[in-house]
Every structure is written in structure tokens, then in C-alpha cells.
Design goal:
This protein is mainly alpha-helical and about 230 residues long. The chain contains ten helices and two strands; from the N terminus they run H-H-H-H-H-E-H-H-H-E-H-H. It starts with about 20 loop residues before the first helix and ends with a helix.
Amino acid sequence: MGLEDFIPAESPESWWNSAEISEKYKEAAKKAGAWIKRTKKDEKKAKKYDFLLANFLVEMILKKKYDVLLEKLFDCLDAWHGTNFLLGILSLVYLPVSNEIRSRSHKPEINFHYEIRSEAQEFDDIHLPEPIRERVNAWIEDIEDVIFLESSTIIMKRTMNLMVYDDHVREFVARVFVFFFQELHITVSHEKALSYSEFILGELQKSLRRKYPNILARDAWEAEEI
């Protein structure tokens, strides 16, 4: 599954602007660390990874340009989605996360080179430059890989069951998608980004269900529509 499989929707005007981060979001960084500790206590046989969202989160909070992503990230944390799954989503826009995922998955680091144009461009599904297409496809692959670095199988299964139904996750993926292209001076509308988000999450869940039927039980998948 890759970006070339997506059939795009219509593209209206660009949607959100940069937002100011508040103290409550900074406090939520502490919540992320507590969340991880609780998850590990709940899972007696949890693998001991130091692959913690909190570490990367502190780095990102110090870089103000990521402020616009943090609100939806913390919404996803509050909804108890797996921390590594959320890291996978962030990996498109924060290369240290991507490199960590690929290192633990025994894959080469991302080598992304794209010459940013001085003038802003509109997102073009058909004529998307190949380096960008490859980068987004690698991101989708990394999200799938990183789910299985989750220390708690309980949280991992919950994430896999609910990822396509949770509005917070869909919106978070869409915002990351737009942020990535904005950094390249390419404008993507909210509607189009959300269409890609829904496509990516849907195809990701299908792929996981095919590869790991014992973890992602069909009856649970069908029962968790929210």
C-alpha cells in the first residue's frame, strides 16, 4: 500500500494556521511519561524499550514550529492510543523519530532530498515529485512497523482496532500530513488531508489484519465502531 493507490477528493482552501502553545500542553508532556509507566505496569511481560514518546515530546516542545501539532497529539494520548503508534505518525515531520523507528526495525535511515521552491505550490496528486511520494510511502511503512514496538499488547490491540474510527487520530494524521507539505512550501487543504488520513489509516488496518490475524481479531474490529 502506498500513496499512489489513493484516489483524491476535491481540494478547497487551506485550513489551519500556526497556534500558540499553552502551559497545559507543556504539562501534558509529564502526562505522557506517566501514561507510559502505567502501560508497562499493566503488561507483566512487556518488553523493556526506552522508545518513549516523552523523550521526543520534550524535544518537539522546545521547537515552537511544532506547537500546532501538540493539541491533537495530546487528544490521542488522552484517548489511550499507543505511544509508539503516535510516534509513527509524528515521524513524517521529525526525522529523529523516523530514524529511531527504522533503526529498531533494522532498516536504513530516511534519505530525503527535495529542492524547495521559493514560491508556494498547490498540492498536486498526479504530479507529486517522486522524492516526496517515496518519503510518504516510507512514513506509512514506518507507522505499521512501529505499532509492533509497543510494549503493551493490550494497548497495541486497542490502537489497531480503533485507529480508523477515532476522530482524534484522523485529525492528527491530517495535521501532520499538512505540516509536512507546508514545510516544503506546498499547500494542502483540510479536506484533502483528511481524505488521505482516512485512506492511510484504513489501508494500514487492513494490512495489519491480514498479517497479524491473531492480534487484530475480526470480532473486536467490527464491535468497536464509535
